[in-house]
Design brief:
By secondary structure, this protein is α/β, with parallel strands linked by helices. It has a single domain, classed as Vaccinia Virus protein VP39 (Rossmann fold, 3-Layer(aba) Sandwich), CATH 3.40.50.150. Helices cover about 30% and strands about 20% of the residues. The chain is built from eight helices and nine strands. Helix 5 links the parallel strand 6 and strand 7. Helix 1 packs across helix 3. The longest helix is centred in the middle third of the chain and has 13 residues. The chain is globular.
């Protein structure tokens, strides 16, 4: 039988410096986890990286490294990893059932170029990712935090943009997708600011070749248009 778990409280995740104390870009959820998901979480240590206050020592060879923030059930992560088997992908989320799903699929499909973390991606960027070491960052369908008083929790904001920029290589990209028009407008306006156009170039906005997630399917069925952004580091 499935069982309910209570997501880790926000206070249990590492503190970040890019946001004011107590502010997070995510919220904990009470979620159902299946036996297979729990088994994958408990028996996939070779695929799991724990948070630590030192630079990441994976991959062990100089190959492109990509970061997938908020991967959901891992459908997009799997597609990226299979399309580029010679690259490495670090997938981060705070939702335990999704972590279990991705770990199970990595085992089933014998995919070895992905590592998974269940923690705050901003803390990982600050403490574990070397400057100018990422070839790309994916942030697909982040929480839009629709209420104005919650906009400070959005992952696309100036302080985090600067952090992302510092961790990407020259020519590296930040790929963002959202199905909320007001968030898309906010993202577009932020990157269009003069101080940011010096750091970022706006790439092709057409939908790339990536897997369609259940979340995206639902958004489309509810009539929300999906906007993809592809920003490049100058």
């Amino acid at each position: 039988m499935d069982k309910w778990i209570t997501q880790n409280s926000i206070s249990e995740f590492p503190q970040t410096q890019s946001l004011r104390r107590g502010i997070r870009t995510f919220k904990p959820r009470r979620s159902r986890i299946t036996k297979s998901q729990q088994y994958a979480v408990d028996n996939s240590q070779e695929l799991i990286i724990d948070f630590q206050n030192e630079f990441l020592n994976w991959p062990h060879q100089p190959i492109p490294l990509y970061l997938d923030i908020g991967f959901g059930n891992g459908v997009s992560t799997l597609a990226f990893a299979r399309a580029e088997p010679e690259s490495a992908f670090l997938a981060i989320d705070v939702h335990t059932p999704g972590v279990g799903d991705l770990l199970s699929k990595l085992h089933e499909r014998e995919i070895t170029n992905v590592r998974v973390m269940e923690t705050d991606a901003i803390a990982v960027l600050e403490n574990m990712i070397r400057p100018r070491s990422l070839s790309g960052i994916y942030t697909l369908f982040p929480d839009p935090w629709q209420k104005a008083r919650h906009h400070k929790r959005r992952i696309v904001q100036q302080g985090i943009m600067d952090l992302m920029h510092s961790r990407l290589t020259s020519g590296g990209f930040w790929h963002i997708a959202t199905d909320w028009s007001h968030y898309a407008e906010s993202i577009s306006d932020l990157f269009a600011q003069p101080s940011n156009t010096k750091k970022w170039s706006r790439g092709d906005q057409t939908r790339p070749e990536r897997a369609v997630t259940r979340y995206e399917e639902r958004a489309i069925s509810e009539g929300r248009a999906v906007t993809d952004f592809h920003f490049l580091v100058n």
